[in-house]
């Protein structure tokens, strides 16, 4: 599921985020955002709370990640 269509907080309390593209060649702010999300390597998956700050970070790197509801 594309990050732009992540479920609202009321429907899913936690979300699973998988890095599907590398941060190499992208702006340093995007690489730092991936790091802040806990994504350090290509194909890495993390489970995060579904809140406004996390959703804002996901929108910034939406072309590099895949989001699913848990």
Query: What is the 3D form?
Result: globular
Q: Please tell me the total number of domains.
A: 1
The order of strands across the largest sheet is 2-1-3
Write the CATH architecture name.
2-Layer Sandwich
Write the layout of secondary structure elements.
Elements: E1 14-19, H1 28-36, E2 45-49, H2 52-60, E3 65-69
Antiparallel strand pairs: 1-2, 1-3
Could you give a quick summary of the protein structure above?
The protein has 70 residues and is of the alpha+beta class.
Q: What key phrases describe this protein's structure?
A:
2 helices, globular, three-stranded antiparallel sheet, 3 strands, Ribosomal Protein L30, Chain: A, 70 residues
Question: What can you see in these coordinates?
Answer:
This protein has one domain (3-69): Ribosomal protein L30/L7 (Ribosomal Protein L30, Chain: A, 2-Layer Sandwich). With 70 residues, the protein is α+β, with helices and mostly antiparallel strands. It has two helices and three strands. Strands 2-1-3 form a three-stranded antiparallel sheet, with no helix packed on it. The mean pLDDT is 90.
